[in-house]
Amino acid sequence: MDTPSDLWTARSGRDRDDGPVPVVIGCDVTTPVGTVLLVHGRNGAPDQPQIAEIAEAYLARGWRVVAPELPNSIALPASGPADRLTMDGLRRAAAEVMVWTRARWPDAPLALAGHSLGGFAIGHLAADLGDPHHVLGASPVLSGARLLAARVAMGPPAVAALEREVPLMRAGMEAEDAAPALARVAAPLGVITGAEDGIVPLADARAYFNAAPNGRFFGALPGQNHCPAGPDVAAMLGVALAALGA
């Protein structure tokens, strides 16, 4: 399957209650540098612009990209009810895909990249894995408490929307924190974010970066919000991946 310009869908991980997690896999070279597990956030999908931007940056540098379609996303109608999402559930689903990915390509370096709640997930995954090649967070969520505080800052309607749309996630947010896991990650870590992001404010993105002992790159682009994409983001990703040794 690992032929140039390969793009295909597989089923990963052990069987879940609603079946294995689908993954989209892309590779533009015969012999990849390594594999990156690219994790989307709440209501995300592999083909969304902010995820595709990261995937293209890795593909251009000769990496294989594994992008799961995680459960309970509005953008993935077959993934289950969006109101059943929890931070821990997203992390556990991503962990299943990580185990599957490592087993499928055991000799390839494995990097972790994630957007928003995907950043929260890979913080935990990196600590569990122990030896990722590097870690890249895009608008990464550090903790449920910080995510909730950002909603509070937006005003009561934003909090009410969160409670209505993801009640299970809201109920457990205060207990979720990736900082202790990130503190155990020795691999190079980078963060890119939008300077105008209201969901993960700049201070929170920097706190994610500072939580890890081996931060190598931090970049915030003016005019970009929670889902950074476009030529300037592509250029920043190129610099970030170079700094991370990718």
UniProtKB/TrEMBL annotation:
Residues 1-21 are annotated as: Disordered. Residues 35-137 form the AB hydrolase-1 domain. Pfam families: Abhydrolase_1. Transmembrane segments: none annotated. It comes from the Bacteria. This is AB hydrolase-1 domain-containing protein. It comes from Rhodovulum viride.
